[in-house]
Design brief:
Blueprint: H1 13-28, E1 34-44, E2 72-75, E3 86-89, E4 94-100, H2 103-110, E5 115-121, H3 127-137, E6 139-146, E7 160-161, E8 166-167, E9 202-205, E10 216-219, E11 230-232, E12 235-238, E13 241-245, E14 256-259, E15 269-271, E16 277-279, E17 284-288, E18 299-302
Length: about 325
């Protein structure tokens, strides 16, 4: 659960005016666009603090459709981006504007890590579905364009549809318009197939993104390229990248992601007892976090236990 500091109510009118002026100045004096990779998370009605659409800056209410003229709210540390700063996020095909504080972002900024938190909405939606959507669209190293041009390709489909409790699929947008969205991932090779795990769910690349560092998770099987895995030697590959342990970690809880294939032991997986997949670098098993099969459950490495959340069928 993410919490943000709701400071708007205690700001004096003079400070609010000053912040508004700063935001307008940033917007009107935007420099040439720059690109930065950062942690990109999402938040919405149920995990805002307090629950709702309140923000620290802007008009006090999170929202937006995603166009350049009507960007969606995002939150971060004021020292990372001043209120009023626009960014474009190619993964979700839309513009965002800094209008809120984010405690986790503040902490990351102090520790030298770039982090923005995007508004997903979710009013009156199923709480677990909203949270699952946020997790599914999170990117550990998402490409963000700062002070973007106004003609980038835009999809205004809601990130979370509260009427259907459906989450946006970034791969559903065909593109078009200005800018240079990232190229689509390569098609899966012949013979690629799903890896089934706990609860019959499939091993899935979050958001169908082929970016290095994209989390790998459990998700309802859907025959997409994000769930089409091929085996080459001791590597598993999807979307042109290899199943990888982040930072070659050997610790319990080491994150599993996709990354450029590099022949290291962080990408070396062998078949163990009881259908387990053992990472050679750590001598630990591929594991569904928390022994749960909920959509969006992240995969990790953990000491091999033979439990159901470490059994895989390929």
């Amino acid at each position: 659960m993410k919490k943000r500091t709701m400071i708007a109510a205690i700001l004096t009118p003079m400070v609010v005016a000053a912040i508004t002026f700063v935001g307008l100045t940033v917007a009107s004096n935007a420099q040439a666009a720059t690109t930065r990779n950062m942690l990109v998370t999402l938040y919405g009605w149920p995990d805002n603090s307090p629950p709702g659409d309140g923000t620290a800056f802007g008009n006090g209410h999170a929202g937006g459709s995603g166009t350049f003229a009507d960007p969606i709210t995002f939150a971060t540390d004021q020292n990372e981006f001043a209120p009023g700063t626009r960014v474009y996020y190619p993964f979700l095909h839309r513009y965002f504007i800094m209008e809120d504080e984010c405690v986790a972002c503040d902490n990351d900024w102090r520790n030298g890590k770039f982090h923005i938190d995007l508004w997903v909405g979710g009013q009156n939606g199923n709480v677990s579905s909203v949270i699952s959507c946020e997790n599914n669209l999170t990117q550990d190293s998402g490409q963000v364009i700062i002070d973007p041009a106004s003609n980038m390709a835009v999809d205004t489909t809601p990130l979370f549809n509260s009427s259907t409790n459906r989450c946006y699929n970034p791969a559903s947008f065909p593109g078009g318009g200005g800018g240079n969205p990232p190229p689509p991932p390569p098609p899966p090779p012949a013979g690629a197939r799903p890896i089934h795990g706990l609860g019959g769910k499939c091993v899935d690349v979050a958001g169908a993104s082929s970016a290095n560092g994209t989390a790998v998770q459990l998700f309802t099987c859907n025959n997409s390229g994000a769930q089409a895995w091929s085996r080459s030697g001791n590597t598993f590959r999807a979307l042109g990248k290899c199943l990888d342990v982040s930072g070659a970690s050997t610790a319990n809880g080491g994150k599993v992601q996709i990354f450029d294939c590099n022949g290291t032991n962080a990408q070396n997986w062998t078949t163990g007892a009881n259908g387990s997949l053992v990472n050679a670098g750590a001598n630990k098993c591929l594991d569904a976090t928390g022994n749960t099969s909920a959509d969006g459950t992240k995969l990790q490495i953990w000491s091999c236990t033979g439990t159901a959340n470490q059994r895989w069928t390929f």
